[in-house]
Amino acid sequence: MSSVTPRSRQRIPASARHQQMLDVAIDMARTQGVTSLTLARVAEASGVSKPVAYQHFGSIAGLLQEMFEQVGEEYEQTIAEAIAYSAYSGANPLELLRLFCEVYIDCSLGAGALYDELGSMIVAVVEEDRSRRVDIAEKYAPFAVDIFGIDERTAYKLMVAFLGAIDRTCEAVISGRIEREEAIELLMGIFVPAVSLPGQSDN
To answer: Model confidence at 157, in pLDDT bands (50, 70, 90)?
Structure first.
């Protein structure tokens, strides 16, 4: 039996209905797993008919893509807001780097698993969707350019290395093999050798 309670049908604007179904789908994915999703189940839990769900998303791939984008936007907004606040408060580059690693790993330990699972499902359902996915390293490279004063190519390569390491690092934290603080230091270590950071101690 589904743990998601169907919502009563009522007339609401199409945009609100669309967002409602998207929120229901994300909730189902978090509680029951992404592989449990079908448009029929999302429609039932949202209190609408299956044809209505198809009108809004077109296919399960369309639903997964929108879920992927929304979870990613929430993830990225949390990181951007934390960094912007610290930069405004006068944090130096080393402090901003630490904050970036702290917030990113905390987001990854929370929403990151769902984000990755959605991405994998999109590729599995519709292979061509791989080419439509945002290059996250390219998206975050300007952050490294701004705070470290490095060129875009170097920033991009550092972000590729960082993003490649984050999943394994989080797995090690979850399994208890390393502590959160150790994970943060490991991730910071990807950047520190490549840039000169005010606030970095000389050994």
So the answer is: very high
Q: Are 66 and 57 in contact (CB under 8 A)?
A: yes
In contact, 190 and 161? CB cutoff 8 Å:
yes
Burial class (CB in 10 A: 0-12, 13-18, 19+), 8: exposed
d(CA 190, CA 117): 25
Distance (Å, rounded) from C-alpha 189 to C-alpha 123? 31
Tell me the whole-structure pTM to 2 decimals: 0.63
| 54 and 77 co-located in one domain | no
47 in a structural domain? yes
Tokens 């994998």 map to which residue?
Answer: 120
C-alpha–C-alpha distance, residues 122 and 95, integer Å: 36
pLDDT at position 143 is 81
CATH number of the domain enclosing 19: 1.10.10.60
Lowest mean pLDDT among 48-52, 117-121, 127-131, 181-185: 127-131
What is residue 32's predicted lDDT score, i.e. its pLDDT? 87
CA 88 to CA 175: how far, in whole Å?
36
